[in-house]
Amino acid sequence: MKNHIVLFEPLMPANTGNIARTCAGTDTVLDLIEPLGFSIDDKHLKRAGLDYWDKVEVHVHETLPAFLKTVPDMTRLYLVSKFAMQDYTDVNYTEAGADSYFLFGKETTGLPEGFERQHSEQAIRIPQDDDHIRALNLSNSCAIVIYEVLRQQGFPNLARTHKYPMDKLK
What we know:
Elements: E1 3-8, H1 13-26, E2 29-33, H2 42-47, E3 58-61, H3 64-68, E4 77-80, E5 86-87, E6 100-104, H4 113-118, E7 123-125, H5 138-152
Parallel strand pairs: 1-2, 1-6, 2-3, 4-6, 4-7, 5-7
Helix pairs in contact: 1-5
């Protein structure tokens, strides 16, 4: 079972860099749907802070329909949107053997409205105070969701100990 963070037309290399780092630390696949607001050549990767790029399984998809063709079970696709009715914590992500995909929208405009409406039953949200902010930061949103998913799954494949046990730090 693999979890996927999917970014629809990401614009900001720093956000994608932070998300790649989260993916590297959580054994999560990163899917990017073009067009991207930056280049993923080596020069741009280093400038964007993507020094974890080689530790992340990355798939680049030309379009949203091209990405959707790679999803074997559409019931395991979750659209993360502030317009969703269901909180991200209200979903059970523990179905054995199935990959889960968490689709996040573009930083400026989110997901395409028609697509979001068509898949509204698969939409999840992170509660926020809309009176004070337009939206949470994309990289923070990805981290919030993926760690809830991993918590429910028992943090598979993640280290339980550190190189430096606490008793040796005294």
